[in-house]
Amino acid sequence: MIRFAFYGRVSTEDQQDPEASRAWQLARAQALVDAHGEIVGEYFDIGQSRSLPWKRRPRANELLAALRDPDRGFEAVVIGEPHRAFYGNQYSLVHPVFVHFGVTLWVPEVGGQIDPTSEAHDLIMSVFGGMSKGERERIKVRVRSAMAVQARTEGRFLGGRPPYGYRMIDLGPHPNPAKAADGRRLHGLAHDEQTAPVVVRIFTEFLAGSGLFAIAEGLTRAGVLSPSAYDPARNSHRTGKAWSKGAVRAIITNPRYTGRQVWNRQRKQEVLLDVEDVGLGHTTKLRWNPDDRWIWSENAVHPEIVDAETFTQAQQVLAGRGRGPGDEKLPRTRRSYALRGAVYCGVCNRKMQGHTVRDAAYYRCRYPQEYALANTVRHPVNVFVREDVILPALDSWIARAFAPPRLSDTLQAMAAAQANMSSHDLAIDQARRAIEESNAKLVNYRAALDAGADPVVVTSWIAQAQAAKTTAERNLREARRTQTQTLSHEEIAALVEELGDVASALGEAEPAEKADLYRQLDLRLTYQPSTNTVKAELKINSAYRGVMERVRGGTRPELHANGCRV
Questions:
Q1: What is the pLDDT of residues 366-386, one digit of tens each?
Q2: Closest by alpha carbon to 212, among 242, 181, 236, 248?
Q3: CA angle 527, 528, 531 (to 5 degrees)
Q4: Strands 76-79 vs 104-107: parallel, antiparallel or unpaired
Q5: In 116-169, where does DSSP find H-type helix?
Q6: Are strands 524-528 and 343-345 parallel, antiparallel or unpaired?
Q7: Any idea what the Cα angle at residue 272 is, between residues 268 and 274, rounded to 5°?
Q8: Burial profile 13-39: b = 16 or more Cβ within 10 angstroms, e = fewer
Q9: What is the pLDDT averaged over residues 296-301?
Q10: Which of 304-313, 434-443, 468-477 shows the lowest per-residue confidence on average (mean pLDDT)?
Q11: Helices 404-416/489-499 angle, 10° precision
């Protein structure tokens, strides 16, 4: 009797029922192998697009990993529906792995086991992969064509967030009878009484000669809530601290404020993850479409906030000042920065970005003035520090600390310097409690809504609870990320030994190699512009801290671990 593992996949993008899809795929696979053995394992991907390679589907990747295990517990894999499993050339990339590890692949379309030496079987599976890709492409064409017609002739609201200045309203049952029977509703846009005047103000000030930065700072100074602060439940990825020039530009360039529905301003473009390894597949990027590809409704379909003439004037002024929203920036030459991701600004505690000036590598923190105003932070417009000033002192400090004569003292200092994690545990507990409280509130609010409470009031409560939950979830992720494990002296020594001769590696490494070594050491540098000092911190799953003083002046660095000089 052959032991089989079952693989299947379902995408939930088009409201497929995962349980029903799994059931019929499993039943089809079971019918194929009943006379030969039994299914002892199951790998079923839910919500994964067929275009994703197997290595990027969680359960399929687990199956590939299991093939390498001699004690995997099965000798064959059965697939109930090859259309769901393979896309394009995925079969030709995956099946050789099965053959290499001696695991047979069974599909109903060939009546059983695939023969790797059979040209007919190979052709059949390749055809199914092509059909799967073609089916997906046909669906995309049909959906996009239908949406274009609905936007142009009906001016239908096609989903997404309403623009700042509008709110969503219910326009009745969905025109599709099947969707209406499922409770789907048609929606449209109406003025938001609080934010629509802000949109008018932005256009008025812009046409009067104010710049994007000036408008953003004026709104922040006046205490006007930014889009992310006004609706935090839908903008949880934003800080919500202040208006940015990007938010002002997005409003000025949005033609929907003229009362017309405009669709296809952006497109989803699939680009290769790695041009050197096509098998990794594609990732989806949002790109701006040129304005001649935008789909405009034939008539106004919602109340306008600015008239068409005002909007056109704003676009002409913006075009005269610089780059428009649809223009593509010229690609920049990539440069390797040895301290990429490791340098932080001591004023605002944000990562400093790599920047090249006259072939010299710098790290820069540019803090927009509107954010400084909102956070009452006295931050220079730009904070710079040169890489070639930091590296010699940093490498010398690290090399001395890990040199054999001082290695024992360094390891003892690192072991002694490990922080007490009770603060992290407390932060995690607080975040979990906040999430539980928010969930309880959401349940109560929705029950009140079902009981007939005022929808406007309850909806605002739900938005506040959801925003609090989002913040708590972010705090929980951050606390878990910063939580470290307490290691013994021997464990730290073993990790350091794995790094090899640190001093030699630093002396011979290229910038990209140095960056990799610094990442292994979990290096963090904090630059204080007021004193021209850099504080260095090393963590090998511990709280190892150091201070490097007066880097610009060339003063010798001194290493401290929790106050103890080593």
A1: 876 656 555 566 778 788 899
A2: 248
A3: 130
A4: parallel
A5: 119-149
A6: parallel
A7: 150
A8: eeeeebeebbeebbebbeebbeeebeb
A9: 91
A10: 468-477
A11: 130
d(CA 372, CA 367): 7
CA distances from 131 to 13, 49, 78, 83, 85 (A): 19, 15, 20, 8, 12
Residue 385, both tokens: 């520090």
- In whole angstroms, give the CA distance from residue 351 to residue 366: 10
pLDDT tens per residue across span 77-91: 999 999 889 998 899
Quick: pLDDT tens for 32-63.
Answer: 999 999 999 999 998 888 888 998 899 999 99
Q: How far apart are CA 97 and CA 91, in angstroms?
A: 10
Q: Which amino acid is residue 368, in one-letter code?
A: P
Task: Report the candidate in 45, 43, 94 with the shortest Cα–Cα distance to residue 72.
Answer: 43
End-to-end CA distance of the chain: 66
Residue 490 tokens read as 């021997």
Length of the chain: 566
Q: Tell whether the torsion through CA atoms of 102, 106, 112 and 116 is positive or negative.
A: negative
Strands 282-288 and 266-272: antiparallel
Q: Can you give the pLDDT at residue 539?
A: 64
